[in-house]
């Protein structure tokens, strides 16, 4: 078998980019998904991540697709398999915040459905497909230890009533990780739920000043913003097998944000 292969959803920027670059440093070939990659733009977006990560001597396959479109999942997986033959680690990272932060009492079904489709329904069914590939490949007897990672959020557990639909989607994603951990353990496939705290990306850029202030006031025990590389390093540790006696494990990457204090 060739190099280890990572399939990363939402690899064009933010946390997904951080995960891609870290896995590239560890020698992984990468299939990276984003909605509208532009081959003519190698300064930002998926093709910029391809350029950067290939400097490590790996191959990066850019994939265009929308994770909420279930009918397109097989095509996305088939393209990755046609290029690399197998997937060693799936990183379910693609996700969105609500277009507008609105109080729970005002939340509209359109926003609820959009967030749920991208953050929960999409990855739930995409993982089903990739897991089936992994089970089949395990069955060939190849030297192969596949793993699955979900990037949920501390919002799985901490309620924010100005984006409740996001929190609900992430709580569902955390339970999805638990269920897949149970279902896939018989095949030796470990599943992890990574819960980032406040990470500096496009998603949090609109609330930058608010969190600057809160971090200064002690929101996190580690007094700084998280960066995508923090999540990338954690995924690399999982991919490299450093947590192989753990499955269904919930790992917070939040600088101690959720430690109860008095
Ligand atoms: P981001 O900077 O906004 O990036 C989101 C990524 O997801 C982009 O690569 C985007 O690709 C992709 N994406 C969005 N919708 C998609 C869809 N329908 N189909 C396929 N790809 C799609 O966000 P981020 O902060 O890196 O967040 C990444 C993940 O971490 C999300 O699941 C988020 O909920 C979670 N998270 C973030 C934080 C944080 O503080 N930033 C904290 C906890 C958890 P395009 O180029 O196509 O837009």
Annotate the secondary structure layout.
Layout: E1 5-9, H1 14-25, E2 29-34, H2 46-54, E3 60-64, H3 73-84, E4 89-92, H4 109-139, E5 147-151, H5 164-184, E6 190-196, H6 202-205, H7 208-216, H8 228-239, E7 249-253
Parallel strand pairs: 1-2, 1-4, 2-3, 4-5, 5-6, 6-7
Helix pairs in contact: 1-2, 1-8, 4-5
Bound molecules: NADP nicotinamide-adenine-dinucleotide phosphate.
Folded structure, characterized:
- The protein is an alpha/beta fold.
- It has one domain: Rossmann fold (3-Layer(aba) Sandwich).
- Helices cover 42% and strands 14% of the residues.
- Strands 3-2-1-4-5-6-7 form a 7-stranded parallel sheet, sandwiched between helices.
- NADP nicotinamide-adenine-dinucleotide phosphate binds next to helix 1, strand 2 and helix 6.
Query: Mind telling me the CATH superfamily name?
Result: NAD(P)-binding Rossmann-like Domain
The tally of beta strands, per DSSP, is 7
Strand order of the largest sheet: 3-2-1-4-5-6-7
Secondary-structure content class? alpha/beta
What is the overall shape? globular
Helix content: 40-55%
Number of domains: 1
Mean pLDDT: 98
Summarize this structure briefly.
With 262 residues, the chain is α/β, with parallel strands linked by helices. The protein has helices spanning 14-25, 46-54, 73-84, 109-139, 164-184, 202-205, 208-216, 228-239, and strands spanning 5-9, 29-34, 60-64, 89-92, 147-151, 190-196, 249-253.
Name the descriptors:
about 260 residues; alpha/beta; seven-stranded parallel β-sheet; 8 helices; about 15% strand; globular; binds NADP nicotinamide-adenine-dinucleotide phosphate
